[in-house]
């Protein structure tokens, strides 16, 4: 028995060494972009913040883009194609795609949220079916429906499934009857359309026609200095919807639902706005990804039950999880929003948040190009709709791409911090509020955040007659000038996400860089994985991929007193660990004290003098750069740890 254990231990050791060697070889052969992107100008040029502007087709990302695979289109060889117009549904049948003798029958059933105390992860199908055949136009009375088609001689063998969402005016009519007419307030509808992981640069690459419609036809104002305030979707949407940071929410984010949080749609609802919230990819939704979601339906219109139902349909998603039948899930969302906008007057004003995770969340970068036809159709319809004169539309993203090969480039790291955002105002708004619009245009090239977008929504709420509680937030309304000398610290942007300062590249084998990388790995093991230590392998530094030193220019345009007074250097280090080949980016500070600072010297030799082994290192942030699917499945109740963990049962 002892001999067997010894043999097993030796085998495990050999396997671990072999896997580490393979990982080292693969990482050595992987193309890591070392060339630096060339700025073409400045997006923000203030006394304390300079945000560089880059060309979207900068050579440093071209190799990444060349290797990307196209997105699988949703349209295919389906035997049925549904057409939806308002509440009417018609069907076209491609007979050549049916087997001989098949007489097609289609039936629909309602899809509803389970209301008997369950949370967001339950839905139920209606018991009654409504069936139709051929091109008969069917008037639908349910908000969400599942459509199933089968040959009449095999009614239990479905050959087609689709899911549809309809705007039911009765919901709007109820809100309208509850409204109190107030003549001296201005209740504009607010529509927020969000797309996951789209930087301003990637928007310019793959949605150029959308950009043209926004800027030329709709006179939309881009917020070019918008900077994310957290690593992923949750902290950025929380900032947008509450004006708060995650650590300011009075709850355990993992264990409690979000029903009692101060989400801004509640303020709109209190003014009898009709509210709507939808996110596709139910498993990735902001308030549901390893979290409890909502125990009660959060808004008047809430699409989650329909998405849950469609994701259980192999036929509806046979072309990919970004599809529902022959349409993108995003197109399903936009159609419902467009139908809501087309509600006849008089009706209540609306607050709607539409957010799409598919197909952009995990990339590749080029996949957002598939969204262009649907977005163009939606924006052109909005331009000619009656709601155009009584609403504000914001097209935005939460952050740029966070995973994949682009994150091995310096430009990829910059893009991940700079999300897309456009503001579209009614045509008459500038005539009535010239100072607001002038301020918005000035702020287009100032450092801004989602805290500011929230403050702007509060500004619109105040116009609509809301009495709002104070929020301890750094946000400033974009309808007033954002201060020119605004730093990341002033704006609520942590150092890890701040792009205001210049960087210089350092050799990967620089002594201070290696120390910083080792400190980051130690931080992962001892701090970030503390709660899951018994199930996660100890990590070791396999390789430093790249390093940047943040430059504080005391005599130049960036007057960064914090650096000089506190005496520290800040590094951004990309590294790979073993086992598992995880790629991380760490923000690390070395504190040497103000007496050891050599102002204006940014090279590696000067850094070695300032940051010696006896000086303290502080790890501010560690983010994952590559996907970790399958590496941390042993963790079921430790969501935050999953991005760092390599399960011991995989060794």
TrEMBL record:
It holds the Pfam family DUF229. The keyword Iron does not apply. The chain crosses the membrane at residues 7-26. This is Uncharacterized protein. GO terms for cellular component: extracellular space. InterPro entries: Alkaline_phosphatase_core_sf (IPR017850), DUF229 (IPR004245). Keywords: Membrane, Transmembrane, Transmembrane helix.
